[in-house]
Write a structure and sequence with these properties.
single chain; 598 residues; alpha+beta; TIM Barrel; Jelly Rolls; 2 domains; eight-stranded mixed beta sheet; 25% helix; globular; hydrolase; Amidohydrolase family protein; signal; Amidohydro-rel; NADH-UbQ_OxRdtase-assoc_prot30
């Protein structure tokens, strides 16, 4: 969570390249998907960062760069309709995603990218249209990330809340309807009268109102309020025919759009984007940290049956003519900016949409739904945000991955793609030097004077206070080189915790290569309650937890590091021994913590 907070801040500090005059480019004799239909052969002229002609005739203008299009397809730049753009602002472009619709970001970061876009200085990054702050209840989903979120509880607060977001620069209003949670932690949620008041307030100011949901019941209730779109679907092993027909009928009658976000639903179902991970061309643009995020997932084990319901809903929505938009929810475990868009489009075809329909769902449809102006089509006067690929993605959606060139505001992205590929290749060629572990593996050198360690920053108390939580912890030397941990875990953060942490790197969030270690061993005793070892590596925004119990008598716990799924042991930033998330008072003693080679 600390990494998430720092990266949110870092997003607002992204540097911008100065504006430059785009060269004249003629893409000659190319198959064109214009956002709606296919043209077998056209030539497209780009001038001044715009499409000067979508069907150019005659000789190339003097000085124009000519790009041969035979055997290739030109597409509008892809639009990811659901992201959380707090990291890697230049990464989506490398995969042909030229615009992102962001569902929650700090106001300063949103305003920064808006300034760059207004000045024409955003060629090196995707354009972003954002909700800024989201509408949620106190203790609701979205308020758990350690940044201040303005909440509300009653319909009477809705107009002032919406007006404040518009004054900050929000392009649309996002509303959270979510009473679910993780484990014993449940979120508070806005009631439907307040949701309807927010929708009405947004519409009164000419803004779209979209709703986050995670159940069929909430989806129907949100549409009943007049929401313009659902920014998720819901997982489920099945959906009844009557429920399916009723939901589709309601969405069609309300003229709403739906963003399924298969990429994150699959992560929740314990599935990984193997098609992306194993694609050499896509992987060549992802460094180790970015790849590790794709190797993670929210679900602990694969449950593909959980995709039965959303697959059926998408097929029925599309058949009924309800706009279905491509969006990944990138920024979450199991997703990656840009790369996941290609997986999302594949998943949409597996749900029953044709490649042609999916391409529209990733270009012209989101541009229309979110009122994004002259983008999402290959048409005269539109932004020269384009993707050139080998083959024909209108019949084979996998062809979107065979990228020849990407243009952002008429500027080619190929130099940035080549640079990133070189960086990734160099990273792969470098051999990491793992830290030499102590001969006995012991990393806890506890004494009355100091909680020492043989390397790294060392041991320290840890709790959720820096993320706005209310949990507290007291760590004291006990005896026999043991420490006593007294924790009070309190509500106030989505995943409250308190405990003891070992920082193996040179500072907070600095990574240490502990790949020589295969097993974590320690001795523990306590109050008989359930605890967790939490390990975080550089690629993860949240730690991976494995439970243990602290009984009345000393016992040795041995945990294989391979059991911490998604953790890269060569980039470990923290090993914690935590109480929580169940609120209450906890007490345990821990000693003889070792990292062992076997």
């Amino acid at each position: 969570m600390q990494m998430f907070r720092k990266l949110l801040i870092a997003a607002s500090l992204a540097s911008a390249l100065p504006a430059m005059a785009a060269e004249t480019i003629l893409i000659k004799d190319v198959r064109v998907f214009d956002g709606h239909k296919v043209h077998a052969q056209r030539s497209v002229l780009l001038q001044g960062g715009k499409i000067a002609s979508a069907d150019f005739k005659g000789k190339a203008p003097a000085g124009a760069k000519v790009v041969e299009g035979a055997g290739r397809t030109l597409l509008p730049g892809l639009i990811d309709s659901h992201v959380h753009a707090y990291r890697f602002p230049d990464l989506p472009l490398l995969f042909g995603v030229t615009t992102q619709v962001d569902m929650f970001m700090p106001v300063a970061a949103m305003q920064d990218v808006q300034r760059r876009m207004a000045k024409g200085e955003n060629q090196a990054s995707t354009d972003i249209f954002s909700a800024g702050m989201l509408a949620t209840a106190p203790g609701g989903h979205g308020a758990e990330y350690g940044i201040p979120v303005p909440t509300l509880t009653t319909p009477g607060e809705a107009q002032a809340w919406v007006d404040a977001r518009i004054a900050e620069g929000s392009n649309f209003i996002k509303i959270i309807v979510e009473s679910g949670g993780v484990g014993t932690r449940k979120f508070n949620s806005l009631d439907m009268p307040t949701v309807k008041a927010l929708v009405d307030a947004a519409h009164k100011r000419g803004k779209l109102a979209v709703v986050h949901i995670s159940t069929l019941e909430d989806a129907r209730a949100a549409l009943e309020t007049g929401a313009d779109g659902l920014v998720h679907l819901f997982t489920g092993d099945a959906i009844g025919d009557a429920d399916l027909k009723a939901l589709v009928k309601l969405a069609r009658e309300r003229k709403a759009f739906v963003i399924p976000t298969f990429s994150v639903m699959e992560s929740i179902a314990g599935l990984r984007e193997k098609d992306v991970i194993e694609d050499k061309a896509l992987a060549s643009l992802l460094d180790k940290e970015q790849m590790m995020t794709l190797h993670s997932s929210y679900g602990s084990e694969p449950k593909p049956q959980r995709l039965t319901a959303p697959n059926a809903v998408v097929a029925a929505l599309h058949k009924a003519g309800v706009p279905v938009l491509a969006g990944t929810d990138a920024g979450n475990a199991g997703t990656q900016y840009g790369a996941s868009m290609h997986h999302e489009m594949l998943s949409m075809t597996k749900a029953g949409m044709s490649p042609l329909a999916v391409l529209a769902a990733a270009t012209s449809a989101p541009a229309k739904a979110f009122r994004l102006g002259q983008r999402g089509q290959v048409a005269k006067g539109y932004k020269a945000d384009l993707v050139l690929v080998e083959g024909d993605p209108t019949t084979d959606i996998l062809a979107t991955r065979r990228i020849v060139e990407v243009w952002k505001d008429g500027e080619p992205v190929s130099p940035a793609r080549a640079k990133k590929q070189e960086q990734v290749a160099q990273e792969l060629s470098r051999k990491s030097v793992p830290l030499a572990l102590p001969a006995d593996g012991r990393i806890s050198l506890f004494s009355k004077d100091k909680l020492a360690s043989p390397f790294g920053t060392g041991w320290m108390p840890s709790n959720d206070a820096f993320l706005g939580g209310k949990s507290t912890v007291k760590v004291e030397y006990a005896d026999e080189a043991a420490v006593s941990v007294q924790a009070s875990v309190q509500p106030g953060f989505a995943f409250p915790w308190a405990g003891l942490a070992f920082i193996p790197g040179s500072g907070p969030m600095a990574a240490a290569d502990l790949s020589n270690a295969k097993v974590l061993r320690f001795r523990v005793k306590g109050d008989g309650k359930r605890y967790a070892v939490a390990i975080m590596s550089k690629a993860g925004s949240i730690p991976v937890n494995v439970p243990f119990e602290a009984g009345a008598d000393w016992q040795e716990v041995s945990l294989p590091l391979a059991g911490f799924k998604g953790v890269d042991t060569s980039t470990i930033t923290m090993i914690g021994f935590n109480a929580g998330p169940q609120p209450g008072d906890y007490q345990f003693q821990i000693a003889d913590v070792r990292l062992m080679p076997q």
